[in-house]
Specification:
single chain, alpha+beta, SH3 type barrels, five-stranded antiparallel β-sheet, two-stranded antiparallel ribbon, elongated
Amino acid sequence: MSSVKKVFVLFCVFFAGYLLAAVDMSANSGSQYRIISGTNVRVRDIPETKGNIVSELALGVLVKVTETASAEEKIGGLTGRWYKVEYGVDGIPKGTGWIFGAYSLEYDKDQKSRIGLSIIEKNLSKASQKPDELGQLLRFAERVPPGTDPEVSLPLKMSYLKALQQYLLYSGTNTDEKVKSDPFLKNAASMIVFSEPAGAFFVKPECFWELYEKSAKLKCAEKIARGASEALIPGESEGYMPAVFSRMVYSKIRYLQAFPKGEHSKKIVDEIYEHLKNLITYFKEDAAKLPAEDLPELKTNIKKVRDALSASDSPRKTDTIKQLDQISGMIK
């Protein structure tokens, strides 16, 4: 990529979030405007993949459609039309060219929060490990206006936390100095904590569960609880049985207690089964050597796991409870 294009992409990354805020003054809803839903979307001089690349657009950039190709095409497994677009606002260099429509969405300023949430969730599912792409996603997630509907604003916040965690894992940000100097983490310092065993920063898991508490009576509650159950927990367990059960109760069991027959309950029971299987296989001898002072809490947590499993409708419930019986026998 030429130095000019690199500068343009950098501008887009830093200003993409502001475009949504400015669009109410500069754009109408409807097919005349589209929002870039991918990262580093190529702009070409003609509506063909062999066309020259004139620029690249970051996630969240708003473009004005001036011409639409008559037929759809399939490129890289995606189907869409080519759009000739104009771009450039708030100091971003202006330009024009063709983009493949599958990397954009029709823009409606009255639905910008929902559209933003859809774009973030789609990009999170790609599991990108490229810092540049994750930086674009994080900046966009931070800037999407939350709106007034908690069914949208709370999932938006959850998506931001997930994007933040992805960025922390793959950006190489592993010191306080890097956090302070990273423009993408300017507003994130209070939400992250360093995990010594991982050598990386994690989003504080309580940030996820605080969102769940706010959503407990909403339709989005289960979705947020599942996200919280997947949050990384700082610290070390190294297969130490009391620590493993403590983490399990804090995350997966907390979901099962709230949604024993929820959409993700069967998968979570499967995950618990695998955790217990590994404990039994690799740490059987250690179980008999546990310090006496750790046993009361461990037994309490085993009971919490058993109670949560008993209320679920997972076909693996019985086998998982048998594993708990086996572990209980190992620590007597």
